Inverse folding.
């Protein structure tokens, strides 16, 4: 199989879907490019469980699943019920099998996935906003409104990483400059995870980066 991630077919989605679900943009494509550059490494891990939190349209996990094939189980989570529904449709349209769950971060999956996730992908709501812009009643605001420093949602995930990831698990996180890369690296370091930038790109006013984290081996 080629080490290339093809952009999934999203022709089943229209502008009405994108009123409630994040439309793939530069950040989505940067994550796909980052993962594509990591395919040889990801294959070497022989993953059995891949998880994407915040799947939106499903573009990222579907692309990854098409590339890696049925060697592992794919779980997709989104807090937005419309996104969960759309992710299911995207998987179906592209003939891949994803387990789609509508919940907040790992939610009720925690006992099931504890120490088992070999690969985790998160393109979070990263835009710095007022906390009150994180409106649970506005599905589309949930896709971008990141609260203080754009960190509110991702900061809730970081302490869960050591619990959910397998011993050789790898975590890919998309951030922007305002999220404070150095501080994120330090937070993860406090959990004995080391990170580095694997790809970065300026897109309009946003300076996007994908960080790769692995457990510090003792
Ligand atoms: C920037 S969008 C990324 C969507 C897609 N992965 C992509 O790259 O195009 C962020 C996604 O995270 C979801 N999300 C926000 N907060 C979440 C939470 N607490 N738990 C799970 N998903 C969340 C949003 O609904 C949205 O679909």
């Amino acid at each position: 199989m080629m080490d290339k991630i093809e952009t999934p077919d999203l022709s089943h989605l229209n502008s009405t879907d994108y009123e409630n679900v994040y439309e793939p943009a530069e950040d989505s494509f940067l994550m796909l490019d980052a993962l594509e550059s990591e395919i040889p490494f990801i294959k070497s891990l022989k993953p059995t469980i891949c998880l994407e939190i915040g799947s939106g349209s499903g573009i990222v996990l579907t692309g990854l699943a098409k590339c890696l094939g049925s060697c592992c189980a794919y779980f997709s989570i989104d807090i937005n019920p419309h996104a969960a529904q759309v992710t299911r449709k995207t998987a179906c349209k592209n003939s891949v099998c994803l387990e789609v769950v509508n919940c907040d971060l790992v939610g009720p999956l925690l006992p099931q996935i504890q120490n088992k996730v070999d690969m985790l992908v998160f393109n979070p709501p990263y835009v710095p906003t007022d906390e009150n812009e994180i409106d649970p009643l506005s599905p589309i605001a949930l896709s971008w409104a990141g609260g203080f420093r754009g960190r509110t949602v991702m900061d809730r995930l970081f302490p869960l990483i050591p619990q959910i990831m397998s011993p050789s698990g790898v975590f890919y996180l998309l951030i922007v400059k305002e999220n404070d890369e150095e501080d994120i690296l330090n937070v993860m370091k406090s959990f004995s995870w080391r990170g580095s930038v694997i790809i970065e790109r300026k897109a309009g006013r946003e300076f996007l980066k994908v960080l790769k984290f692995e457990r510090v081996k003792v």
